[in-house]
Amino acid sequence: MPARPFHLAWFGAGGFGVKSWGRTWSGRGGSDWADPQLWIDIAQALERARFDYIIIEDSSYVPDAYGSSFEAYVRSATATPKMDPSVLAPLMAHFTTRIGVVPTLSVTEYQPYMLARKINTLDHMSRGRTGWNIVTSSSHRAAQNYGRDELFEHDLRYDMADEFFDLACALWESWEPDAVVLDEETGTWGDHTKVHTVDFDGKFFRCRGPLNAPQSPQGRPVFVQAGGSPRGKRFAARSANSVISGVEGGVGAMTQFRADVRATAQEFGRDPDDVKVLFMTSPVLGETDEEAHAKRERQQRFAEAHPELGLLHLSRHSGIDFARWDLDEPIPETATTNGHQQMLAQAIGRTPREILRKGTGSLEFVGSPDTVAAQMDEVMQEVGGDGFLIANFDLNRRYVSEIADGLAPALQRRGLTRTDYGSAHFRDNLLEF
Ligand SMILES: Cc1cc2nc3c(=O)[nH]c(=O)nc-3n(C[C@H](O)[C@H](O)[C@H](O)COP(=O)(O)O)c2cc1C
């Protein structure tokens, strides 16, 4: 039994769009994708498995980075369609009671007041189970949908995010916690002396405030963040309650990444235990280890036979058109991006074919639920914490059940993950251990 269990969260890759279609276990995924029921089913299954939270990924543009055309993206339903995660989030919260629900909202697309108001509303409606996946966007195409020619420069986006974050927090706290008095005898619903303007006048944003609603159950939402570049990591260490990472390079790189985030959090005067670093992975499970390995081999063969499907993501995140790239030509040192810098840094020196062969995230786990649980235990003991972010880019109900009803109970039997939630609020559960 470990001193501290670890956390599990889910990354809803591809956002509120087509999750799986045209494959053996897709079901009606190609036509029913706009029905929120799949997400409600997933949230309920993960709550049964005692996951801390589920992220709804997002971006708001139709990509054309690969082949300079929408064609491949629309044809394969890759990264498009995507609908608004903040409309889906309250439904998932309504049909669950404990799991945290984390929509993705971008600081370069929202105005701070609008975002603070939306998140405050969601936290009230979910009774304290709302998080915010803080992103800065990564494509000029998104910026062009919001009236600009280009996305702001990479590090500048994080400077803006720092200021956006401070303003949003001021708005969330513009009503003191006891501003609502509900005194029927004096006819006083609220005490106006406890409601304050924020009068924020920053480099990028201005806002008078106050927010036009009282503090929500958590006050501030749970902050989730994924920046992996040096500047991204600083932003995360300053603000995030949970950092999600796809860092590659094995257990050593994971240990180093977590140590960096924790040390930087401490520099900001924070308790490093208040920042839970979760590593992305997509375990491949079978009844037996042999079956799981055979499944992984089939997945690899599929990826090699359909390289375009993997390259679509690589292109849209880096802005590099891999339709014009030789699959066996290594990505040179000179490659740069204003998009996902950590991803490109990890791709340099490798060929697209090598990248495609690799599984999702930081580490591969392949085996029966019991084998994978044992491997996860070993990795977490070495890394020191704090858990895993499960993701799958071809997501169907069968996979969700393999994780929720196969892997999660195997982890619980070993005392590695929680068997119940200790609190009603998302942040309290996340910081429980
Ligand atoms: C696990 C994970 C999930 C992410 N989810 C989103 C998302 O939903 N929307 C988005 O625009 N960016 C998303 N990103 C991108 C990050 O927010 C960030 O822009 C990216 O990691 C590049 O940051 P960097 O340049 O600091 O490395 C995600 C990244 C990772 C690793």
Automatic annotation (TrEMBL):
Residue ranges of every copy of the Luciferase-like domain listed in the record: 35-386
Record organism: Pseudonocardia kongjuensis
NCBIfam families for the chain: FMN_nitrolo
UniProt record similarity statement: Belongs to the NtaA/SnaA/DszA monooxygenase family.
Protein name as catalogued: NtaA/DmoA family FMN-dependent monooxygenase
Keyword Calcium carried by entry: no
Keywords of the record: Flavoprotein, FMN, Monooxygenase, Oxidoreductase
GO molecular-function terms, A-Z: monooxygenase activity
